[in-house]
Amino acid sequence: MATWQLGPFDNDDAVEWCGALEDSAPDQRVDLVRHTLEAAVLAGPSLSPEGAAQAIAAAATVLQTLTGTPPSDSAYAPRFLLGRDDVEVTPSLRDLATRALDAVLVEGSRWRLRWADNIEEDEALRVIEELRISLASEAP
User: Measured between alpha carbons, how far is 45 from 24 in angstroms, rounded to an integer?
Assistant: First the structure.
């Protein structure tokens, strides 16, 4: 996976996921978000780095829907959803997004191991932890 920044949409896997989200029919977008988050929760620490990148993008999409503001300056953030109700955020979807990020952040996860001993490890963890905190504190 090519990564050029540390934001939720700054890697190839997240960009591909956002492309699939945009290509989906509007009434199917929430299903893609939910499926991505559920897959992350079910995989737990064995979640692949690619799956983790997609789950992070999905969780950031949930946060964007809640706040009305993209959680990233990335050109690849799903701004096409702003002002739309394609991804209705329910309390259960917000909780699912938070649990998916827990799976990404858990000690020993494949995503964390990928960043181990990287000079940007602390910052990469901080970005995801802040996303998780923002999700947990936003009311749907």
Answer: 28
pTM score, two decimals? 0.92
Give SS3 for 65: helix
Q: What are the start-end ranges of the H helices in 1-140? A: 12-23, 29-43, 49-67, 91-105, 110-115, 121-137
Distance of CA 84 to the CA centre of its chain: 19
CA nearest neighbour of 106 among 58, 51, 41: 41
Contact indicator for 50, 121 with CB cutoff of 8 Å: no
Residue whose C-alpha is closest to residue 62's, from 96, 38, 109: 96
Segments making up each domain of the chain, as ranges: 12-137
Task: Tell me the two tokens of residue 17.
Answer: 């996921």
Q: Are 135 and 94 in contact (CB under 8 A)?
A: yes
Residue 46 class from Cβ within 10 Å (0-12 exposed, 13-18 middle, 19+ buried)? exposed
Q: At what angle do helices 121-137 and 91-105 cross, to 10 degrees?
A: 160
The confidence band for 118, taking pLDDT boundaries of 50, 70 and 90, is confident
How many angstroms separate the CA atoms of 43 and 59, rounded?
Answer: 16
